[in-house]
Write a structure and sequence with these properties.
Elements lengths: L1 E6 L4 H13 L3 E4 L10 H13 L5 E6 L3 H7 L7 E3 L3 H9 L5 E5 L5 H13 L6 H10 L4
Parallel strand pairs: 1-2, 1-3, 3-5, 4-5
């Protein structure tokens, strides 16, 4: 599976860890930035990942900043993007099972590397349940919602 990943300076270290973890597991990972812990503007990187996921070029994306809030706010402005800000394995699983989330947002301040690994294993392997949840996901996609 192809995954794009982006972060700001606050999420840089966790992004680097996740890139290595996913590459070792055989995923194709595209890093859309940033490239250091030097201060940057998170919307730049959230937009790049959201464009790739929203267009279908990358089926999944991961965005990381200090809290995950800013990244998720930006990414969810893009069509065909459902970004879920998750802080534990249960929320990561439910974001896929019930919401068909295609971008996972993480807050580096709250999610240590070991927990991120567990969350990613669940989030990347969990399928969307569809059924009654499809109706709700369709409502999310409806701009008049």
């Amino acid at each position: 599976m192809k995954i794009c990943i982006g972060s700001d300076h606050g999420g840089f270290e966790l992004k680097e860890h996740i890139k290595s973890y996913l590459t070792q597991k055989g995923y194709e990972v595209l890093d859309v930035g940033c490239d250091s812990k030097e201060s940057v503007d998170y919307p730049v990187f959230a937009k790049e990942a959201a464009k790739l996921v929203g267009s279908g070029k990358y089926p999944r994306g991961i965005l990381i900043c200090t809290t995950g809030i800013g990244m998720s706010m930006v990414a969810n402005k893009f069509e065909n993007v459902r970004t879920a800000l998750c802080h534990n394995t249960d929320s990561a699983e439910m974001s896929r099972a019930h919401n068909d989330a295609n971008i996972l947002a993480l807050g580096a301040k709250y999610v240590p590397c070991e927990l991120a690994d567990k969350m990613l294993d669940i989030w990347l392997s969990r399928e969307f349940e569809g059924g009654r949840h499809q109706r709700r996901v369709s409502q999310i996609s409806n701009k008049s919602c």
